[in-house]
Each structure stands twice: as C-alpha cells, then as structure tokens.
C-alpha cells in the first residue's frame, strides 16, 4: 500500500489543500492520502492556532466525500513540537508494510534543508512537491534529486493566513473553503 502523507497545520484546511491531495489521488500511484494534522510545527508560533481537535474536525469535513483522502491525528500523541522524522519512524514501525511518501508545497521544500534529519527522510521516502509562489530559493542539492517529484499543476495563490485575516476583517471568503468547512467555521465563530 502506497500512502502519501500530507503534513500540515491546516489552520484552516482550504480548497488549495484539497486540490493538491485530489490531484495526487487522481494522477499518481498513491493508494491513499492521509492529512496529518500537526499540533505544533517546530518553525511556527502556536498563537492563532485553532485547537487540534477543531482543525481535525475541519479536515474530516473537507475530506469525508473523498474515498482516498483520510484525516490523521497520529501526531497528537507524539512529542511536540512535531518533527516529521519522528512521525515517520513511528508510522513505519506501526505499518511496516506501507510505503510512505511526503506531500508538500514548494515553500516547505525551500526550508527543507533546515528540517531535523532531512537527509534520512530523503533516503527513505519520496517527496511530491506542489508548485507555490513563496520567498527564497530551493537549495541546489535538491535539484533533480531522484526522490523529489515536482508536480506539474497550476499555481494557486491561497493560504490559511490570508483566509484567517480575511475572516477577522469580516470579508466573505466562502469560495476558498469547502462548503462544510465554511459552515462549521462560521457556526463556531472561528478566527473572528
Ligand atoms: N496554495 C498552496 N499551494 C501549494 N501548496 C500549498 C498551498 N497551501 C498550502 N500548501 C502546502 O500544504 C501544506 C500544509 O499547509 P498549511 O496548513 O501550512 O497551509 P498554509 O496555507 O501554508 O498555512 P499558513 O498560511 O497558516 O502558513 C504545506 O506543505 C504547504 O506548503
Ligand atoms: O521536522 C522538521 O524539522 C519540520 C520543520 C518544519 C515543518 N515541519 C512539518 O511540516 C509540516 C507542514 O507544516 P505547515 O505548518 O507548513 O503546514 C508540519 O507537519 C510540520 O511539523 C517539520
């Protein structure tokens, strides 16, 4: 079984995330894509971060109609901040027969050389990178790397930061969130 691990803060999950996961579900040999909701990204402050279980619920609402997409709370029970290498080791022990790949936006590839044990991650796992406009450059060591697969797909200028800011300013952002996600965010008064 080939599983694509889509790690993220998902604060909140938006249609960009869904388009990326669906693109891989339809155009790669991945059997499943797990949205791994991260309690604490080691590079990000926790302020403005919604509760773990609220973010997980939003991912559940976004993915429930998609057969190959599944939410995962695996990192909720691991030490924080969440270093991806620790999660990968844990998952590989728990599911020794599964072949795990990573899915990330190009912004994350630009800082990937700063991740804990990134060489070990690259030794053992393929990475699918979705194009994204962002500051900085990808390190030359990652150019044409056999484990790194660049996805040929249109760029989407969309981020959770922009969505959170727009909700705070009272703007209508409904098209940027899956319908059930927007309804829950609105009902619970999140990000206001
Ligand atoms: N519009 C996008 N295009 C490509 N990749 C994206 C896009 N939005 C998110 N991603 C990728 O999805 C993963 C999870 O992203 P994350 O939950 O941090 O969303 P975000 O929109 O980047 O959030 P924030 O604005 O809070 O940093 C990351 O690998 C990120 O690079
Ligand atoms: O392992 C690391 O050193 C590391 C450094 C930065 C980010 N990550 C992970 O990358 C994932 C993407 O985070 P985010 O906040 O951009 O959605 C999330 O699972 C983080 O824990 C991991």
Can you walk me through this structure?
The chain is an alpha/beta fold and 192 residues long. The relative contact order is 0.19. The mean pLDDT is 97. Helix 1 (15-27) links the parallel strand 1 and strand 2 (32-37). It has a six-stranded parallel sheet with strand order 3-2-1-4-5-6, sandwiched between helices. It starts with a strand and ends in a 5-residue tail after the last helix. The protein is globular. The protein has one domain: HUPs (Rossmann fold, 3-Layer(aba) Sandwich), CATH 3.40.50.620. Helix 2 (52-63) packs antiparallel against helix 7. The longest helix is centred in the first third of the chain and has 13 residues, at 15-27. It has helices at 15-27, 52-63, 84-94, 106-110, 118-124, 160-168, 179-187, and strands at residues 2-8, 32-37, 69-72, 99-105, 127-130, 148-150. Residues 8-11, 16-17, 20, 104-105, 107-108, 130, 132, 156, 158-161 line the site of adenosine-5'-triphosphate. The site of adenosine-5'-triphosphate (ATP) has 18 residues, from helix 1, strand 4, helix 4 and helix 6. Pfam families: CTP_transf_like (PF01467). It comes from Oceanihabitans sediminis. This is Probable nicotinate-nucleotide adenylyltransferase. Keywords: ATP-binding, NAD, Nucleotide-binding, Nucleotidyltransferase, Pyridine nucleotide biosynthesis, Transferase. Pathway: Cofactor biosynthesis; NAD(+) biosynthesis; deamido-NAD(+) from nicotinate D-ribonucleotide: step 1/1.
